[in-house]
Structures are given as structure tokens and as C-alpha cells.
Design brief:
The chain is α+β, with helices and mostly antiparallel strands and about 325 residues long. It has nine helices and 17 strands. It folds into three domains: about 70 residues, Ubiquitin-like (UB roll), CATH 3.10.20.310; about 60 residues, no CATH class; about 110 residues, no CATH class. The N and C termini lie far apart (about 135 Å).
């Protein structure tokens, strides 16, 4: 048997170098430890990135905060004396009234003003519903006022045996002493009758259950002004319940009709019937009607008016 030559052996060995061997490895981690280390690297990178973002955001907010309120807390701003007062209202009060009610000494520094005390003092005045008081640096004070709207007048005794004084009643039932209203505006308001006012720690207590009466007055004033202008006294009472339902009665006294009785909710229809009755009475030369009762559903009862003594209308 012939043995292979040494030359062929060397040739075979040379052909089996690492370059000729197929490489099956890859770059991905294949062990749990390698994967864990890679996750740790990713986590540290994300945390570092978030830390940089938070740092930049904090610096930006700090600059914004400082720029926004610097004037309010600067020493130079606090040392400025008050030079200008802006007073605005949705009602009738004036800047002169404010200057008298809340006197501020000349030369008072803006930061020395107690704006919370000013707000409290203004809102203690019954005519004011809400007040906003703000400083505007370096030397301005801004006051914005929302006033109550009067819908009724009242004669109130503030102490036992004292002479009754005139007060106003707002839409919410708040009783207060009005200021700066035009005389003709107050004279157009009916008086509230049939109410016993009570006094509490903060003055006269508000009138309760006034919402329906306010709605009737507003409707009559806007839709039937000739009828409303004749109204003098308005009373509100609840004589009891009918079939388990509260039966609220509103009585109006006027010059042409001595007594008109309404009941919610059909005020529009009731006012229309009242207008027809008044027009019919004038056509017949009757200037004064004793009573018109509109609280009986579709039936209207008229007293001292022979041909309309008892008439049925459709609602």
C-alpha cells in the first residue's frame, strides 16, 4: 500500500485554516447575564436622559417664575406709593363713593395696602355682591365690583319702636340699604308686603322663597310695562297644599286693580288675561276693579265687574 506523500498532507492542512471555516457566531447576547447587563445599560441611559430633561425644564420654569412675579416681590416695587385707583362696577356706585367708604391716606405704599381687608369691607356693604381687589405694580390699585339688582322696596324697623326705614330687596332676597340709585328707578319698584323681617348677627335676614315673585315682576316689567308701572305692593304667601302640591299665591295691589292674585307657573297667560280685563273695563268706563283672581287654573274671577264676574278662559 502506498502512503500519501508529505506534500499532499501539507496541502490538506493548509486548506483547513480559520478563514475556510464557516463562522456561525452572532453579535447578540446569548446568555442571561449578557441580556441583564444590556438592560442595565439601556436603563441607565434612559434615566440619564430623563434627568437632563427634568433639569432643563426646572431651569426654564424657574426663569419664567422669576420673570413673572419679580415685580410683585421686588424691593423697588414695594416701595412705590399708590398713585392711581381704578374703580369699575356693573352698577351705580362711583369712585367717589369708594374713596369715602375706604379712605386711603396719601403716600400709602402699594404693598402696605391690605387688599383682603379692602375686599372684606366692600363686600360687607349689602349692595355689593362680589369684589375683586388686585395690585398692579408699580403703583396702581384695581377694584372691580358686581352689585346686586334691586327688584322690590321694603319698610323695615331695625329696632323695637324705631321708625321704619326704607330698604331694597335684591333678586336673591337680600335686604340692603341702597346708595346712588336714581330716584325714579326706586320709585318704580313695588313694595314688599306681608313679610315680617327678622334680624340676625349680620343684619336683616334675606327674604326666603322669593324666586317666583321675582320672575313675575321681571316678566311684567319687560312684557307688560303699563301694567307693571301701576303696581304698588306685592305680597307672597303659601296658604297650604292642594292635592299634596304647594299652592303659592302672589298678590299685587295697584291703582287700577285693587288686588290681583297670581299663582305660578303660568304667569304669561295670567298677565295676558289681566291685560284684556283692564282694557275691557276702560272701554266700559270702569276705572277701578276690586279684585281679579287668576290663581284658579283656566277660570278667572273678577269682582265689581258685572259682565266679567265669573268668566272661564282656556289656558
Amino acid at each position: 500500500m502506498k502512503e500519501p506523500s508529505s506534500k499532499s498532507n501539507r496541502s490538506s492542512a493548509a486548506s483547513l485554516t480559520w478563514r475556510t471555516i464557516e463562522q456561525k457566531g452572532n453579535r447578540k447576547a446569548v446568555t442571561d447575564l449578557a441580556r441583564k447587563r444590556k438592560r442595565q445599560v439601556y436603563l441607565k441611559t434612559a434615566v440619564a436622559f430623563l434627568a437632563v430633561i427634568l433639569l432643563i425644564s426646572s431651569l426654564g420654569l424657574s426663569v419664567y417664575f422669576f420673570q413673572t412675579i419679580r415685580a410683585q416681590f421686588s424691593i423697588s416695587g414695594s416701595s412705590e406709593p399708590l398713585r392711581l385707583i381704578h374703580f369699575e362696577t356693573d352698577g351705580v356706585l362711583t369712585r367717589e363713593w369708594f374713596a369715602t367708604t375706604v379712605p386711603i391716606a396719601r403716600g400709602t405704599k402699594l404693598m402696605d395696602l391690605d387688599i383682603h381687608l379692602i375686599k372684606e369691607k366692600l363686600e360687607g356693604f349689602g349692595q355689593i355682591k362680589e369684589t375683586t381687589v388686585t395690585r398692579k405694580f408699580p403703583y396702581e390699585l384695581h377694584i372691580s365690583v358686581r352689585e346686586r339688582v334691586p327688584v322690590l322696596r321694603a319698610r323695615v324697623s331695625t329696632a323695637r319702636g324705631s321708625k321704619p326705614q326704607e330698604r331694597l330687596i335684591s333678586r336673591e332676597g337680600v335686604v340692603y340699604e341702597g346708595m346712588a340709585y336714581a330716584a325714579n328707578r326706586l320709585e318704580s319698584l313695588p313694595y314688599l308686603g306681608g313679610v315680617r323681617f327678622s334680624t340676625g348677627p349680620e343684619g336683616i335676614e334675606p327674604v326666603e322663597n322669593i324666586r317666583e315673585l321675582v320672575r313675575l315682576l321681571a316678566l311684567a316689567r319687560t312684557r307688560y310695562p303699563e301694567i307693571y308701572d301701576d303696581w304698588k305692593i306685592a305680597s307672597l304667601r303659601q296658604p297650604g297644599s292642594a292635592l299634596g302640591v304647594d299652592h303659592t299665591l302672589i298678590t299685587i295691589k295697584s291703582r287700577n286693580v285693587k288686588e290681583v292674585v297670581f299663582t305660578p307657573p303660568a304667569f304669561e297667560w295670567q298677565l295676558g288675561q289681566l291685560e284684556q280685563i283692564i282694557d275691557h273695563s276702560r272701554q266700559r268706563g270702569i276705572r277701578v276693579i276690586k279684585k281679579v283672581d287668576l290663581s284658579l287654573g283656566d277660570q278667572v274671577v273678577v269682582q265689581d265687574f258685572p259682565d266679567l264676574r265669573r268668566k272661564r278662559f282656556r289656558n
